[in-house]
Amino acid sequence: MSSLALHGVTHRYPGGAGPVLQDLDLEVVEHEVLCVLGASGAGKSTLVRLLADLDQPQSGRIDRGADPRLPALVPQSPDLFPWLTVAENIALGGRYAANAGRFRPERVPELLADLGIAQLAGALPSELSGGQAQRVALGRALAVDPTVVLLDEPFSALDPAIRADLQTWLRDVLTHVRISAVLVTHDVDEALVVADRIVYLDGARGITADWSPREDGTTREEMLAHYRRGAVAGASR
Amino acid sequence: MSLAPADLDSEDPDRPVVRDAAAEARPGDPTGRGADGPSRRPGRRPGARAQRGPALAWGALGVLAAGLAWWALTAVGGAGSPMLAALNPLGVPGALASLLATGVLVQDLVTSTLRLLLGMGIAAALGIPVGVLIGLHRPTRWASALPVQFVRMISPLSWAPVAVALLGVGSAPVVFLVAAAAIWPILLGTASAVAAIDPRYVAVAHTLGANRREMLRTVLVPSVRPAVLQSIRLALGIAWVVLVPAEMLGVTSGLGYEILNARDRLAYDEMLVVILVIGVLGAAIDLLARLLLTPRRG
Fold first, then answer.
1. Chain A closest-CA separation from residue B37 CA (Å)
2. Which domains does chain A have, with CATH numbers?
3. How far is A59 from chain B (nearest CA, A)?
4. Residue B79: what are its φ and ψ, rounded to 5°?
């Protein structure tokens, strides 16, 4: 059963040379962590904007499944509200009627503990490190008990050492909460650590590879080779 | 299981201790925040407290010097001009006592303050919603740009004859002129604050399911609050400056009127007291506004 699916989605920006995405089909299976891998300019950001309902596709449709709510977004920069504390940021979704019945206030301290930031509950975002802030952003998304969480290069701005720790940790979190997730990244290693399934997005050419490394044994080298071919093709277009 | 990242999970005694690299990045940092984020907290400069003593001393010296210069000017210039002689600071206590004895000073002070607050209230009640509209709606912003720039550059006192003709004699035209002066900083400050709302905050709220009203309440209002409060403070200063000349036009009460009244009675020492009261009250209003309108978290 799918929790989110794109059917024949085409999107072009006004004044752009051609479509960024063309006739794209993509399905996120329930409880699956899907990673969309792609080079710069492969349409990853456009895909995020469409999935998050920040842009509308020119054609095709996005099937949001049984839960009418949007995927909860974990953006590239954590985008915590600077006027709210950590705990209030995590509880943000609870202020919206759309999450009635799905958000429980008692979930906030649980999440704070689960995310390893309980001691920061009363802190302001300006007092956090980048890694801590990104954990809060994930907590804010998980607090509304979403069907799908959408992660847009969540660790790309962090130091490599912290990034590696957080990738392992994210994998554990997602396994634990058993929700569908779409992780958009340009980082093959991140994809390998976090995802069940990895698709390679190559702009208007669509999905050019679909791997499940844990099942089909695809290696990092095979993925990197494909990545290079796509990046070269993208650069020569 | 715990979802805490390994580096923070201290409950497993067998695990080698790997401290959070972020916390380790800056040894001696008591907040534990690392160097991997834009996390420098704006705060008081170190040493600000140590400079308080000298600042107070120099401030007192400045007031003393200004008083002395004032006294010297009136003492020397007073030889040739009876009006300058009457402005001597040594005459202030006596004039203040006589003004207080008649009770008009306190009455005028209250009247002027009420007019100021009423005018400010009208300016905020109109300026904030219109500013929000201009900030949110681009066609309105484009359409209003030239008219707003045009009208706001006209001194509000230019409208005095119109105000008196339309609203009659009394407090109403004064309040109108104060509002006409105060509305522009509020309107423009609100509009630019609304236009500058971070679209990423809007995106976060949108994906969490916020409807328009909830967006207004949880993103717009807290985003623009500091800038709007700042613009109200700015407007308050302008309104106070405009209030006094506005009260010289067709009213028989208020501090501005009292200046003319004292002049007509040739009571220059009392006129000086009213001018001083205007200065002191203006400074007090700004101080109060700074305390009340300085943005706080919440």
1. 4
2. 2-71+146-236 (3.40.50.300), 78-145 (no CATH)
3. 21
4. -60, -35
The H-assigned helical ranges of chain A are 44-51, 86-90, 107-114, 130-142, 160-177, 188-194, 213-216, 220-236
CB hemisphere CA count around A223 (13 angstroms): 26
- Element containing residue B15 per DSSP (H, E): none
CB contact under 8 A, B5 and A133: no
Does B192 map to a domain? Answer: yes
Give the separation between CA B102 and CA B93, rounded to whole angstroms.
15
**Which positions in chain B touch A52 (Cβ < 8 Å)?**
203, 206-207
**CATH number of the domain encompassing residue B141:** 1.10.3720.10
Which residue range forms the structural domain that includes residue B159? Answer: 116-248
Tokens of A156: 């790309």
What is the nearest CA distance from B129 to chain A, expressed in angstroms?
Answer: 22
Among chain B residues, the shortest Cα distance to A100 is held by B209
How confident is the model at residue B21, as a pLDDT? 40
Q: What is the mean pLDDT of residues A163-177?
A: 86
pLDDT at B18: 38
B133-153 average pLDDT score:
93
Residues A192, A213 contacting (CB under 8 angstroms): yes
In a domain, residue B267? The reply is no
pTM of the full structure: 0.78
Could you tell me the pLDDT band of residue B9, with boundaries at 50, 70 and 90? very low
Q: How many domains does chain B have?
A: 1
Q: According to the model, what pLDDT value does residue A234 have?
A: 57
- Inter-chain touch A131–B205, beta carbons under 8 Å: no
Res A157: pLDDT: 79
In a domain, B157, yes or no: yes
Residues whose CB is less than 8 angstroms from the CB of residue A29 and which lie 6 or more positions away in sequence, other chains included: A1, A2, A3, A180, A197
- Give the closest residue to A35 by CA, choosing from A179, A191, A206: A191
**Cα separation of A196 and A28, whole Å?**
11
Residue in chain B nearest A114 by alpha carbon: B3
pLDDT confidence of residue B16: 40
CA distance B11 to A119: 15
Mean pLDDT in residue range B138-158: 93
pLDDT category, A197, cuts 50, 70, 90? very high
Q: What average pLDDT is seen over chain A?
A: 88
Q: Do B1 and A168 touch (CB under 8 A)?
A: no
Min Cα–Cα distance to chain A from B57, Å:
35
Question: In the predicted model, is pLDDT for residue B12 greater than 70?
Answer: no
Sign of CA dihedral A103, A106, A109, A115: negative
| Cα gap A8→A35, rounded to integer Å | 19
Cross-chain residue pair A169–B34, CB shorter than 8 Å: no
Residue B13 lies in a domain: no
The question of ipTM being above 0.85 is answered as: yes
